[in-house]
Amino acid sequence: MHNLWIFNPDTDIARGEGRHIYTPTAKVREVRRKMALCQASFASYGDLILLLDHQDHTEIQSLENFDLVQKKGIHIIHPEKLTQLDWNIINPKPWGWDHSIKEILLRHGATTEALPSEEYMDCLRELSHRRTTINFHRLMAKRDIYSGIPVPMEFTNIKDAGQWIKANPDAIIKAPWSSSGRGIISTSEMTEDSIIKWISGILKRQGSVLAEVKMKKSIDFATEWDITKENGPCFLGLSLFRTDGRCKYCGNIRLSQKEIRKIISTSTRLDIDEIISAQQFSLSELIAPHYTGPLGIDMLISQTGEVNSCIEINLRYTMGHLSL
Questions:
Q1: How far apart are CA 96 and CA 117, in angstroms?
Q2: Is pTM beyond 0.90 here?
Q3: β-pair type (209-213, 249-253)
Q4: What is the number of structural domains in the chain?
Q5: Domain holding 209: CATH number?
Q6: CATH number at residue 228
Q7: H helix intervals, 143-209
Q8: 309, 6, 311, 319: which is closest to 145 by C-alpha?
């Protein structure tokens, strides 16, 4: 079998759209072009990388990881070449599965047998909804792991959301599906009218919003996982990253596992291995029965040393996987 690697960084947004035909924004396409070869670090000799954008050889040669592509003998192809592949020996490995990437592969010659079923895709979309973090926190509590703040709340109407925000004026409000910190607002930085307008728009498009009390953070970090049918959730390592004041992802900090653990241990008295063990239990209960593949759990440590053990659950590859 040969893996077919596909960098589709907008997979969370595509899941939110829920349509089989989805057109990413120009900004997303720019990121997709720039990082088109990022999965070469995961690939084995003879694997393939599918470019979703038409990039000529000169542009491809200028991309990061092109030297790795050559070293590993990875084949770079465009969608029109998919009809020439033997799909009996091809294993598609997108950044994340969604209906849109499946439709692209089907339109260009992939067999239905080589792709996830519609039922699996629908289930993945629901698991990717941010409400999954609510049940995850409840499962973590069964292992005596608490974030120090109330469990996130989900609201389906503007009245209830507005009342909660008045009671919790320094809060984070999230769309059910978004990517890299987009689809998230901090209520303390917006007027009441702007908050209501934003929430109303998300309710109209996605049906609900998630709300949680804001923690004054000192560190953003994540646990990276791979879930397999045979072994369930397998812990791969820790990653450290940066976000801006609006919770948007700004980049990973490349450090050794030993260095990351030292930073964490000096920022909290909680045992990171106990948290990882509780996360593994929670993933086994909530995610592993329905999903196999890469997964990352975004976390944070507050300025007072509390650990929020589940800010986001990303059912896809993450930049943290690349940093391991």
A1: 14
A2: yes
A3: unpaired
A4: 3
A5: 3.30.1490.20
A6: 3.30.470
A7: 158-167, 192-206
A8: 309
- Of the candidates 213, 239, 210, the one whose C-alpha atom is nearest the C-alpha of residue 224 is 239
Let me know if residue 239 belongs to a domain: yes
Residue 111: enclosing H or E segment and its boundaries?
none
Neighbouring residues of 301: CB distance < 8 A, sequence distance ≥ 6: 217, 218, 219, 221, 264, 267, 268, 307, 308
Count other Cβ atoms within 10 Å, centred on residue 315: 23
Mean pLDDT of successive 10-residue stretches along the chain, which has 324 residues: 96 91 90 97 96 96 97 96 95 97 95 96 96 97 93 97 95 90 87 95 96 94 97 98 82 95 96 98 98 97 96 97 95
- The C-alpha angle 78, 316, 156, rounded to 5 degrees, equals 120
What whole-number distance in Å separates Cα of residue 280 and Cα of residue 287? 10
Cα–Cα distance for residue pair 148/15, rounded to 1 Å: 30
Cα–chain center distance at 319: 9
Residues 66 and 137 in one domain: no
